[in-house]
Design a protein that fits this description.
The complex is a heterodimer of chains A (230) and B (217). Helix content of chain A is 37%, strand content 25%. With 230 residues, chain A is α/β, with parallel strands linked by helices. In chain A, helix 2 packs across helix 3. The two termini of chain A are 32 Å apart. Chain B is 76% helix and 0% strand. By secondary structure, chain B is an all-alpha fold. The C terminus of chain B is likely disordered. Chain B is built from nine helices and no strands. Chain B has a single domain, classed as MetI-like (MetI-like fold), CATH 1.10.3720. The chains are: A alpha/beta (230), B mainly alpha (217). Chains A and B meet through helix 2 of A and helix 4 and helix 5 of B.
Chain lengths: 230, 217
């Protein structure tokens, strides 16, 4: 439903992404993993069309509705409810459906009782759940997630993972960057491993964690990839 | 007579700020997201206009509205309308430049998120104005402070006609030249009180809605 061919991104003299080729199929839950600075976020942004690159990005009609949830969710200085309404307005949801969709999304995230609160006054975990609810309410075919649990405590992390697992069960296609290998194992159907801006592996999750790839990947998986090598 | 002067000051400056806010906020928001050749030059000109001397604005508007000027047929020189035009020109760059900066800074924080949700560039900028509405209120208040406290432009295009175009600042200038310092000082205090009241009103509204206190500082 989406493909990226020969995509390279440079920030000044730094090559953030080099010749990336990736195909996202319907129903995939792709985990992008790699060390800091390996290009996970840049690849995610290139896939979503948020960053200029030298390659070709092809989006099938069925993947036109896509949205991204960021590591630090951005909420407008509005109530929880109005943040949902703005998202639905931007997504072009029919006006008659907006209230029902916002209500359903907030129930699903366990935030309906907090709908009158200022969104930015919520805790980090609640804001991330709200970001997921906001994304879900727009009915995306493809959801991008940039380390969605990186700043959350274990309890909030579990709640967010539960929401993602439910999205996956419902057939949504997800692409998530993460540092958390356990999370990739638990949720993803495919793992894409990046190292220094290049895609080094693109395998089914079981195969990725079972197979010996190369010395650097082994070090990364053991959490022993040293800074000087990164 | 005093309250008439105060009322005219408020009417002229509030009208100028309302008109300038309408155009300035839209222009500032557009400038924050628009990309075109010469944009940097336009930004430099806009930032220079922040220091536009009020007497220069007064002189230009006078030349435009005087009988022999291109807009002389309007016949509004030495009327409150001319004063509104002058003050609008004076504060428009203030509102446009400060709101552009405000939107520009906010986009770094949430621009990608709004784009991801499907917002077009100008929609993103307008949503950022809504997001930063308390800071926008402070920008408009700053513009109002500049408008209500200036004397050069309204003196030139209004003529300081008693009961017609005399406002607080021109009265202060007149009374000072006549040596009536207590009245001039009293009017100065009224002017400060007016701005203080509006600022307090914004702060109260902000607290009531749980806005960001930092934005009003």
């Amino acid at each position: 439903m989406l493909s990226l061919d020969n995509a390279s991104v440079r920030y000044g003299s730094v090559a953030a992404l080099s010749d990336a080729n990736l195909r996202i199929e319907r129903g995939d839950f792709v985990a992008l993993i790699g060390a800091n600075g390996s290009g996970k976020t840049t690849l995610l942004q290139a896939l979503h069309g948020l960053v200029a690159h030298t390659g070709v990005r092809t989006v099938a009609k069925e993947a036109a509705a896509q949205v991204m949830v960021f590591q630090r969710p951005f909420m407008l200085r509005l109530s929880v409810w109005n943040n949902l309404r703005v998202a639905l307005w931007l997504a072009g949801a029919p006006p008659a459906e907006r209230a029902a969709r916002a209500t359903e999304a907030l129930h699903r995230a366990g935030l309906f009782e907090l709908r009158g609160r200022q969104a930015r006054a919520l805790s980090g975990g609640q804001q991330q759940r709200l970001a997921l609810a906001r994304a879900w309410a727009t009915r995306p075919a493809l959801l991008f997630l940039d380390e969605p649990t990186a700043n959350l405590d274990p309890s909030a992390k579990r709640e967010v993972e539960a929401m993602l697992a439910r999205f996956k069960l419902e057939g949504m296609t997800l692409v998530m960057s993460t540092h958390n290998l356990g999370q990739a194992k638990r949720l993803a159907t495919r793992v894409v491993y990046l190292d220094r801006g290049r895609i080094r592996a693109d395998l089914a999750t079981d195969a990725f964690f079972a197979r010996h790839l190369d010395a650097r990947t082994d070090l990364f998986l053991k959490g022993e990839l040293p800074w000087d090598m990164e | 007579m005093l309250w008439r002067t105060v009322g005219l000051s408020l009417a002229v400056s509030l009208s100028a700020c309302a008109i300038a806010a309408g155009f300035g906020l839209a222009f500032g928001a557009w400038l924050a997201v628009a990309r075109f050749p010469g944009r940097r030059v336009l930004l430099a000109v806009l930032n220079t206009l922040l220091a536009l001397p009020s007497v220069v604005v007064g002189l230009v508007v006078y030349l435009l509205l005087s009988r022999s000027g291109p807009l002389g047929s309007w016949g509004i020189l030495f009327t409150p309308s001319a004063m509104v035009i002058a003050q609008t020109i004076l504060v428009l760059p203030v509102i446009a430049a400060l709101s552009r900066q405000l939107v520009h800074d906010s986009l770094r924080d949430g621009g990608d998120q709004l784009r991801s949700m499907g917002a077009r560039p100008f929609t993103t900028a307008v949503l950022m104005l809504l997001h930063e509405r308390w800071a926008v209120a402070t920008v408009v208040l700053t513009a109002f402070g500049r408008a209500v406290s200036e004397v050069g432009a309204v003196m030139i295009v209004g003529g300081n006609i008693d009961g017609v175009t005399r406002v607080i600042t021109t009265t202060i200038a007149l009374e000072t030249s006549k040596g009536d310092l207590p009245l001039a000082l009293a009017l100065g205090i009224v002017l400060l009180a007016l701005v203080g009241l509006i600022n307090a009103g914004i702060a109260v509204a902000q607290r009531a809605q749980g806005g960001n206190p930092a934005a009003a500082r």
